[in-house]
Sequence to fold (314 residues):
Amino acid sequence: MEKRNIIIDCDPGIDDVVALCFAAAHLDKFNILGITTVAGNQSIEKVTENALGLMSFLNSDIKVARGAKGPLIREKRPAAHVHGENGVGDYQFPHTKTLYSNNAITFMRDAIMECDGKVTLVPVGPLTNIALLIKTFPEVIEKIDLLSIMGGATFGGNITATAEFNVWADPEAARIVFDSKLPIVMSGLDVTHSCGFFRDDVNNMLKSEGKISRMCGEILNYYFKGDHVNNGTFTPVHDASAIMYLIHPELYAFRHMPVTVDCSEELGRGNTIADVREWFEYDKTYPKVLTGVDLEKFRELLLEGIYGLDEKVR
Ligand code: RIB
Ligand code: CA
Fold:
């Protein structure tokens, strides 16, 4: 089966790291053209250092390109209280790999235009880079076959009562992307709150002989120190859903529906207003909003991928 060409745009970020490991565990399915970084969970310097640190840890030659230092208009608001001061739960990665490009936008444009086939973008941080890409180089649009996005929520947020962090951090960028008519699959909080690991899964990873599964356990353990899990029993690994969908779409329920990003202030900011009215039938040109997931199967496949990567990297 032909591999899918992908670029992962991220803000590592604890769950970003697990998602990147999961993608790296499936190089039989993905041709990873590159990893681009965007300010979000932490500063652009820290998230880029974390992306390079992970590639060093995996001894991977996947290209890393540094992206936007902050949102198009809004102030930066790192999520240190969730991901730690260094962005990856204070885990110290080695640093042997160097930056391929200090301009993620031209890197993505070149990678997309030079690629023989179509390219799937996998944004799992604020959508700043993606908005800048399609506005600056609209010629890429016809070569992008899908955006598998971690972001948004049709009901209830995490950074505010209404908004999910990635969209809230840069709502103007999200508005540009959702209004672009590009094919979108939205892994919002509706599904990602059920995409993750139980406390025991993390405890087992902490005791693993494999360095990658142990590292994932150590960074995920940081989440449990905070208040970001359901009373200490389960932690979402939000970003992994944007990768999982590309490998196992059958795990998900979905509906196509218009999604409008609220760019107002206060509680409206970053709300992804989806038209969930049952009596409206929207065609496939509208975003595919994921509405349900097989939690148990997701957990099993993500664990299999992480432990499997240990075997591959040995
Ligand atoms: O709301 C979850 C998203 O915000 C994830 O991408 C996580 O990494 C943070 O960026
Ligand atoms: Ca992220």
Notes: Residues 4 and 30 are 5 Å apart (CA to CA). The first strand starts at residue 4 and ends at 10. Residues 295-313 form the longest helix (19 residues).
